[in-house]
Input
Amino acid sequence: MIAEAGLAALWLAFSLALLQFGLAVAGNRLGDLKTLVAPVAVAQGALTLLAFALLIWLFLRTDTSVELVAANSHSAKPFIYRFSGAWGNHEGSMLLWVTVLSAAGALLALVERRLPERSLRATLGAQALLALGFFGFLLIASNPFTRLNPAPPQGQGLNPLLQDPGLAFHPPTLYLGYVGLSVAFSLAVGALVTREVGPAMARAMRPWVLGAWVLLTIGIVAGSYWAYYELGWGGWWFWDPVENASLMPWLAATALLHSINVLAARGSLRAWTVMLAVVAFSMSMIGTFLVRSGILTSVHSFAVDPTRGSFILGLLIFYTGGALLLFALRIASVREGARFEPVSREGALVANNLILSVILGTVFVGTLYPVAVEAVSGEKISVGPPYFNAVTGPLVLILAALLFIGPLLRWRRDTRPNLRRIAVPAIVTVVALALTFVVPAMNWLPRLGLAFAAGLATASFLPLAGRELRRTPLAIWGMVISHLGIAVAMIGAASDASLTRETLAAARIGETLTVGPWKVRFNGVDPVAGPNWTAIEGHLVATRGGTSIRLDPQSRYFSSPPTETNEAAIITRLDGQLYTVIGKREGDRWQMRLWWKPMVTFIWLGGALIALGGLLALIGRLRRERGRPIVAEART
Output
């Protein structure tokens, strides 16, 4: 009965989404009935949450009469993997997607009081139209509550690569970010429909984009570290196509966030803001298509069903194409907004957005070009790190240079920029560049990356100069911390690219290997068993500066489904990580892979600082907006 109740809740939510869209379209012709749009949105969100909660309950019970549970769960799995297994598959992850989409619409209906009534109603109508497509996809092509008769005695188990605590955290965080951008999309569509593109729209959109951006940042950083320690290959980002699928909406959301700030503060960049809102959510949908179409091979992929991929591609074309058509029809009625000179804070933000857009385009082309070539010619090609690093690396350096100056410029026009304020970070950059020549074999890109990162870390604090720190708005603190986080992450990435040391060996028991400043003695192996796996566990002792630490990397075997994985053992120090992996046996030798990765932890520390800065800015903006009077703007 639980599965039937979940399916019924989905059908009811679909019906309410249809009603919500109809009420929004009919508008004033319905008289007082038009006020039902918001309550219907809340009810739709509640029913979708109920359906998702029931799916989780089925997984916790390991109810193998449900096909999805039988294919992705096992009664012997630990509780956390039975719980997170609900979204560790195609159908469950899509139900999570729709749940977040509906819940976001419900929350918007409950809390938004700043938009004119017409704009809010049009926005909720656009959100309902988005939900209708994905409800249809679930109910027609990806029903998570399909029954099996007879039920198998035991489930097949979850993909062992997903049997990690990261599964309970990483996908939901990403989805909250992905689908959170749907509200920005709907707000942009609603503003175009009602011709009310202006600062009120930007102020309503900003907390949603900030929240989605923070969650995307956390999800990407957590996913990067999860892949780093779980896959056992020692890399933190390999430009995997599905990793790129999460990076693309983040880049678009970053540009959108800067554009929103200009529109909210100065009334400028109206058309640019609407376009970026459409692009940001479109990138989220493209990521969904890539993961579920079967056109890409990746450890992150959920499905290899071209039919489902075609369904999502159809939704992508319909929603994105429809929004772009509406944009083309309405753009002439959108006011230009306040003008500004190229040398101004607005000008710097536009340059920032252009570079982010070029990086987005670079990643987009590099990710989809192999797919296009294979579709046209049947030839399989790959685009990997050499392309992405060579093209995006210089753009990131230019972006870092812009962050030196942009926050110090005045709004609208700055005829005499105070360049003396950047003298200290400029000097720091030159000194840091000189110091990199201590490592003569370093490539030019990591060398410049370290130098610019050092300068940016210094420049990030300049907006605080001359301010009373206790009275400084949280939004300013957020900007400072986020820019500092970018510098810290750049230091980690450049150090990992240029200073990493690797040792690959077939080692006998008792042998000592050297990697970087560490000596690692191989003391032997033992068989061990976990809740649903067995393993060969290596015993290593790593020594540095008179301190010895034990490490126990494992080579695990899962029987359901049959899979072998590597579990890395890692030592973390302030100056880096020692990363160890044990492989297969070859006679009396064992394959060993050791890496010394200086300052690699700065990558994730920087990501955490970026997210923290965004969170502080979000809190500050919400506090400020709470005290702002509600004023309906004239049509623009």
Notes: The radius of gyration is 26 Å. The CA atoms of residues 412 and 613 lie 25 Å apart.
